[in-house]
Write a structure and sequence with these properties.
Elements lengths: L1 H16 L5 H14 L20 H12 L4 H26 L5 H12 L2 H7 L5 H17 L5 H14 L3 H15 L4 H25 L5 H6 L4 H18 L1 H12 L3 H20 L14 H19 L1 H16 L10 H6 L12 H25 L5 E4 L3 H7 L2 E4 L6 H4 L30 E8 L3 H11 L4 H4 L2 E8 L8 E8 L6 H18 L1
Parallel strand pairs: 1-2
Antiparallel strand pairs: 3-5, 4-5
Helix pairs in contact: 1-4, 1-5, 1-6, 2-3, 2-19, 4-5, 4-6, 4-7, 4-15, 5-15, 5-16, 7-8, 7-9, 8-9, 8-10, 9-10, 9-14, 12-14, 13-15, 14-15, 15-16, 18-19, 21-23
Length: about 525
């Protein structure tokens, strides 16, 4: 227990080190808030038909509890996730000893491989359901495969939790049922639970069809598509995670050595399942292998079993050294390093919209910075935009949550017509989840209030404003309807002045030429003032 306590302390420190809020998490938060307001599962209440722009109904419902109580969802959901992550670390140790026959050393090494993994730490607090889902899948696996006489009630609860937390949860439930039936000498309970879960899933699907008009979640329409290019990107995504962290490679090498026991063969299948899903989905833009976090406890058990074999054959010293070596390899990405050669990592680069390859640590840092910037912009828009305005945006999470404006999503997650459009063969490759991107001018027929928005700061602010207006490439046909302007923000950070730049639809009495000229005159005056 003392060793596990140390592992949990390190896990807390890792989670604190990588504490952040992902912009995508705010999408679910906004759905939660609208549910708490009695508006239903909608992102834009003004939309003619709701769009299922989330992948985690259970997490959205949980967030609605805090929104309804007027508590800070941006605090309580990440905190809940971090606490569940610690529970998961403890369960890896406990079930490793109880169900898998691992000794104290091997089980604590397995727990440490989860608790100290940078990917687990990052997604313990990212605001999404990633780690709670991983722990729910782990619990389902324990009930369905490892436990000898799990009750039907506990099987149903665990399976339902998995299905509600992620859209692909039904696949994990099926995998657990199949593996459990192969291993169980008394399949009656599993069959009964499977029938109940099938009925619940049918009811869930019927509700989705009734509410959103489709059996397929809109997030899947946007992000999942089959084809050679997508499969190639998915394979590179999995390979990048494997060579960056090392443990997937080591776990794969350990399988022939430890999989003589049927339980470890089932564990290997679950670990492989995470990789297969990530390949089929075409990978993910977010850092630290978010889609593969669900497989980490299973990889840890495989490596824990290898440590047990080493312990049995060569003694505790060798076991501790082997465990420490694997942990060291896995920790390297937390410092921007990896055992994989840089050319290999660059060859596996999949984020086409990045300027170039970057480490997972650098991508996490960029993601965290972007989310903070989007939150500042959203709060500024809440103050300086007319309530009820519509805004075109490529990142809709924090901007949408804090501004409460109607959002037209350039990536299509919450805008149906963008998400359902076909990607042309001549369109440039983009990062995972960003394939459906459209320019802001795409929404011109809808006459949005705000075509563009951005926050700039410091002495370069005026120059940056002019550069932005040029880079936004507002078509000539729209320059008579829209014009740029800026306002200064009153922020706690007094070290630099901050400005919100907008491209806004003109009123009926406003002259476009005068508005454009006023913008450039005002930026020149501001530059002289700064």
């Amino acid at each position: 227990m003392r060793n596990l306590g140390l592992v949990l302390l390190v896990a807390v420190a890792m989670s604190a080190r990588f504490a952040f809020l992902c912009d995508d998490a705010y999408i679910g938060f906004r759905y939660s808030r609208n549910l708490a307001r009695g508006l239903g599962p909608v992102f834009n209440p003004a939309d003619a038909a709701p769009v299922e722009g989330y992948s985690n109904l259970g997490w959205v419902l949980y967030g609605a509890l805090f929104e309804g109580l007027l508590l800070d969802t941006t605090l309580w959901l990440p905190l809940t996730s971090a606490c569940i992550g610690l529970v998961g670390v403890g369960l890896v140790d406990r079930w490793g000893r109880e169900h898998l026959g691992l000794g104290a050393r091997a089980s604590v090494v397995a727990a440490a491989l989860v608790g100290t993994c940078p990917a687990w730490a990052v997604w313990s607090t990212g605001g999404l359901e990633t780690v709670p889902f991983a722990v729910a899948v782990l619990w389902w696996f324990e009930r369905a495969v490892l436990a000898e006489r799990a009750s039907v009630g506990s099987l149903v609860v665990a399976g339902l939790l998995v299905m509600l937390l992620r859209i692909e949860g039904a696949g994990w439930v099926l995998a657990g049922l199949g593996l459990g039936l192969l291993r169980s000498g008394d399949p009656t309970r599993l069959r009964t639970a499977g029938l109940v879960l099938a009925g619940l899933f049918a009811a869930y699907s019927g509700w989705r069809l009734w509410t959103f008009g489709t059996l397929v979640p809109h997030t899947a329409v946007v992000k999942v598509a089959f084809g050679v290019a997508r499969l190639d990107r998915g394979l590179r995504y999995v390979a990048l995670f494997a060579v960056t962290f090392g443990t997937p490679v080591l776990a794969a090498l350990a399988v022939p050595w430890v999989a003589r026991d049927r339980a470890f063969r089932a564990i290997a299948v679950m670990g492989l399942g995470a990789a297969v899903f990530a390949v089929l989905a075409g990978g993910d833009f977010l850092p630290m292998g978010r889609m593969l976090v669900v497989g980490l406890p299973f990889l840890a058990w495989l490596l824990g079993a290898a440590v047990q074999r080493i312990d049995d054959r060569w003694g505790p010293t060798s076991a501790w050294l082997a465990g420490a070596g694997v942990l060291l390899v896995q920790l390297l990405p937390a410092f921007g390093a990896s055992i994989a050669p840089v050319p290999l990592q660059e060859a596996l680069h999949i984020r086409a919209t990045d300027a170039g390859p970057m480490t997972e640590l650098a991508r996490w840092d960029r993601t965290a910075q972007n989310a903070r910037g989007f939150a500042v912009r959203g709060r500024a828009l809440a103050v300086h935009a007319v309530p009820g305005s519509s805004l075109v945006a490529p990142a809709v999470g924090a901007v949408g949550y804090w501004s409460d404006l109607t959002i037209l999503d350039q990536h299509g997650l919450v805008t149906r017509e963008v998400g359902e459009r076909a990607v042309g063969p001549d369109e440039a490759p983009r990062s995972p989840g960003h394939d459906k991107y459209v320019e802001a001018a795409y929404f011109a027929p809808l006459h949005p209030t705000l075509l563009h928005s951005k926050v700039v700061r410091g002495q370069r602010g005026p120059r940056r404003m002019r550069e932005l207006v040029e880079s936004w490439d507002i078509p000539v046909a729209l320059q008579g309807e829209y014009a740029p302007r800026f306002v200064e923000l009153d922020l706690p950070d007094r070290s630099e002045r901050h400005f919100l730049v907008l491209v806004e639809r003109l009123g009926p009495d406003e002259d476009a030429a005068e508005a454009w000229q006023s913008f450039f005159d005002d930026t020149r005056m501001l530059a002289a003032d700064l």
